[in-house]
Recover the amino acids of this structure.
């Protein structure tokens, strides 16, 4: 009788599985999500929220890159940071440590470095949470060159945007204009280590939470091989009006990333 009882499924057995509710989405590939090797660039307000959502959603193998340290103004927007972290810790290391406290089965590596110094781009997915255009373009170029899906997020006060870049589609550089070029050398860092002085901008946790949630939701689609469900072009969010819309972005014929891919394909055909 005891053996039979042990074999019986107990009431509420579904709740023993951490990912039971996610498995109820028929298209969700939990195994793929857990095995995917991901990089998150930026560990500020947006990066904190992205890591939190990724860990809770089942991503297990994450590298987070950020060059900055922690200052008091970070504490109102970054759930992983504590008073004791201020001025003594790098953002990436703390986010990695505290992220693994949410789920000890995760492996999160924090790299305290400029993204320009990163040499390993062998990832299944890259999520951008940076606050300056130069770093954003650097990640975009490497992701596109290596054929890695890239989900870029940005926030400015109550405004936010998300762009999903996949091989063959429009990338961030396709959207550049003259104003962007003028901003390229500016760095919007909390610690003031930038190449140019830039006044601080308004920022709040609610916008970061919304944009990060959208980024991770798109990551779940990509890693579940549901690219057709992903956001097309650019999604803009306006927290003041509550409006959200998607705007078309064409592939730019002058984009160097696409020219490089086209030239590579042509060379392959010629040698073939």
């Amino acid at each position: 009788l005891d053996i039979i009882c042990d074999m019986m499924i107990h009431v509420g057995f579904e709740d023993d599985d951490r990912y039971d509710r996610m498995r109820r989405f028929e298209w969700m590939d939990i195994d793929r999500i857990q095995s995917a090797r991901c990089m998150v660039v930026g560990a500020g307000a947006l990066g904190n929220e992205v890591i939190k959502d990724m860990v809770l959603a089942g991503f297990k193998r994450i590298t987070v890159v950020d060059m900055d340290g922690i200052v008091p103004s970070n504490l109102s927007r970054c759930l992983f940071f504590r008073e004791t972290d201020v001025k003594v810790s790098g953002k990436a290391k703390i986010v990695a440590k505290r992220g693994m406290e949410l789920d000890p089965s995760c492996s999160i590596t924090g790299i305290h470095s400029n993204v320009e110094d990163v040499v390993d781009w062998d990832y299944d997915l890259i999520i951008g949470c940076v606050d300056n255009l130069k770093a954003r373009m650097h990640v975009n170029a490497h992701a596109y060159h290596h054929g890695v899906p890239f989900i870029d997020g940005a926030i400015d006060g109550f405004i936010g945007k998300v762009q999903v870049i996949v091989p063959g589609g429009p990338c961030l550089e396709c959207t550049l204009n003259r104003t962007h070029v003028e901003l390229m050398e500016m760095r919007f860092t909390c610690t003031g280590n930038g190449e140019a002085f830039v006044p601080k901008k308004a920022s709040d946790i609610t916008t970061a939470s919304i944009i990060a949630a959208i980024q991770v939701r798109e990551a779940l689609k990509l890693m579940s091989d549901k690219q057709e469900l992903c956001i097309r072009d650019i999604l803009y969010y306006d927290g003041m009006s509550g409006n959200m819309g998607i705007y078309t972005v064409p592939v730019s014929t002058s984009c160097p990333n696409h020219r490089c891919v086209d030239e590579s394909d042509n060379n392959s055909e010629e040698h073939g």
Remarks:
- The chain has one domain: 26-271.
- The first helix runs from residue 2 to 7.
